[in-house]
Specification:
The chain is an alpha/beta fold. It has helices at 16-30, 49-56, 81-86, 97-102, 107-119, 132-136, 140-151, 157-160, 181-198, 201-206, 217-224, 241-248; strands spanning 4-9, 38-43, 61-64, 91-94, 123-128, 164-167, 209-212, 231-234. It has one domain (4-248): TIM Barrel. An eight-stranded parallel beta barrel has the order 1-2-3-4-5-6-7-8, surrounded by six helices. Strand 3 (61-64), helix 3 and strand 4 form a beta-alpha-beta unit. It is globular. Bound molecules: phosphoenolpyruvate. Residues 9, 168, 173-174, 212-215, 233-237 line the site of phosphoenolpyruvate (PEP). The site of phosphoenolpyruvate has 13 residues, from strand 8.
């Protein structure tokens, strides 16, 4: 069966001491119990990875929020998948809409990132999702299909089974607007069908597809109830351990 995952994307928030405190709070709260079969992942800033790893000590997954397209070299300011893995992370978010929008990350670049993440034994959490204009024009499925097809180009089935997909409608990220359960299910089912057509039914049924976009304790249950929604990529609400765990407990 595919995994249920609730991942917290801290974005560019928290000082090191605040981040370590938040990790401690998440760990302590998680120890009180989470539904069986649900995995937690946190994605702090790069600077916090090694310290957060020491606190989590393997009980909660650790993710970076981005990685470079190369392993090493003259790329000032970049952080490679190899470095991220050496800091103890097991996951990396790739293609978040903020990276696509503000840093102009292209599909070709994201495809390289997915490949280099896999080569370094990191699980890519590959993000896709349409903006408001694309939703209103009714072209959201084509947009998401393109993002996925280009992002995973060249991946064998063995590679692809290690990838997690996060569907994050851009119009719902950080806006307080959430996709309705029906809109989320429609897109998750569409993505699963797409994976089936690109690989096969077994691979499609094994792929975890997370929802992201203003998910919070008050709406997580109705979103997670959908058969093709396997969890969430949580932004704002993951900065509060209580809210983050309440979302995980919505399963
Ligand atoms: C995100 O950025 O991945 C996200 C889903 O953010 P928020 O939950 O704040 O909308």
């Amino acid at each position: 069966m595919r995994r249920k995952i609730v991942a917290g994307n801290w974005k560019m928030n928290t000082s090191l001491s605040e981040g370590l405190k938040l990790a401690e709070e998440v760990k302590n709260d998680a120890e009180k119990g989470i539904p069986e079969g649900v995995s937690l992942v946190v994605a702090p800033p790069f600077t916090h990875l090694a310290g957060v790893k020491e606190i989590l000590a393997g009980s909660i997954g650790l993710s970076a929020q981005n990685c470079a397209t190369d392993d090493s070299g003259a790329f000032t300011g970049e952080v490679s998948a190899k470095m991220i893995a050496s800091a103890g992370a097991e996951y990396v978010i790739i293609g978040h809409s903020e990276r696509r929008m503000f840093f102009r990350e292209s599909d070709t670049e994201l495809n390289k990132k997915v490949k280099i993440a896999l080569a370094n034994d990191l699980t890519p959490i590959f993000c896709c999702g349409e903006n408001l204009h694309e939703r209103e024009k009714g072209i959201y499925k084509e947009i998401v299909r393109n993002q996925i097809e280009l992002g995973i180009t060249g991946l064998t089935e063995d590679d692809f089974v290690k990838v997690i997909i996060a569907y994050e409608p851009v119009w719902a990220i950080g806006t307080g607007k959430t996709a309705t359960p029906g809109q989320a299910q429609e897109m998750h089912a569409f993505i699963r069908d797409l994976i089936k057509s690109l690989y096969n039914a077994e691979t499609a049924s094994m792929t975890s597809i997370l929802y992201g976009g203003s998910c919070k304790p008050s709406n997580a249950r109705e979103i997670f109830e959908n058969s093709d929604v396997d969890g969430g990529l949580i932004g704002g609400a993951s900065l509060n351990a209580g809210d983050f765990l309440a979302i995980a407990r919505s399963f």
